[in-house]
Amino acid sequence: MINIDVSVAIQVINFIFLIWILNLILYKPIRKILLQRKEKVAGLEQGINTIMADAGGKDAAFAAGIKSARTKGLKEKGVLLAAAADEERRIIDKINEKAQADLAGIRQQISKDAEDVKIKLQQEVDAFADAIGQKILGRAV
Predict the structure, then answer these.
(1) For the segment 44-69, what is each residue's pLDDT rounded down to a tens digit?
(2) Are 141 and 130 in contact (CB under 8 A)?
(3) pTM of the entire structure?
């Protein structure tokens, strides 16, 4: 049979005292460390979320900047190509004008040279005709 006496009360007091000591020495510091860890992890998660949001915004801004730069570059390329085409046309026109002037000068020089040669040949033909006539007739013409 079980006898309930003072030893049960002492055991209950001992158990309560032991729970109080364990709570004071062991459980409270562990709960405090766990609470600090939880706060630290929550802070890190919030920092990660903030950084991810900032990175997404910066990525979008970067993509928009690249798109804007490409558009601007293509416009400038078009302007430069148009300017280059105009410059090319101007240079070609200048070269054609110079070539036409040179060609006209060369034609004029050729016609002058041809006329000079024609005159010289005519003189030589006359001289040859006189010489042939003298040889055939045997006397001066």
Answers:
(1) 999 999 999 999 999 999 999 999 99
(2) yes
(3) 0.44
Q: Please tell me the distance from the alpha carbon of residue 140 to that of residue 133, in angstroms, as a whole number.
A: 8
Q: Which of 57-66, 89-98, 113-122, 125-134 has the lowest mean pLDDT?
A: 125-134
Instruction: Measure the CA–CA gap between 38 and 41, rounded to whole angstroms.
Output: 5
CA geometry: angle 5, 11, 15, nearest 5 deg: 155
Q: Which residues contact 130 (CB under 8 A, 6 or more apart)?
A: 141
Q: What is the dihedral of CA 16, 17, 22, 23, to 10 degrees?
A: 70
End-to-end Cα spacing for the chain:
186
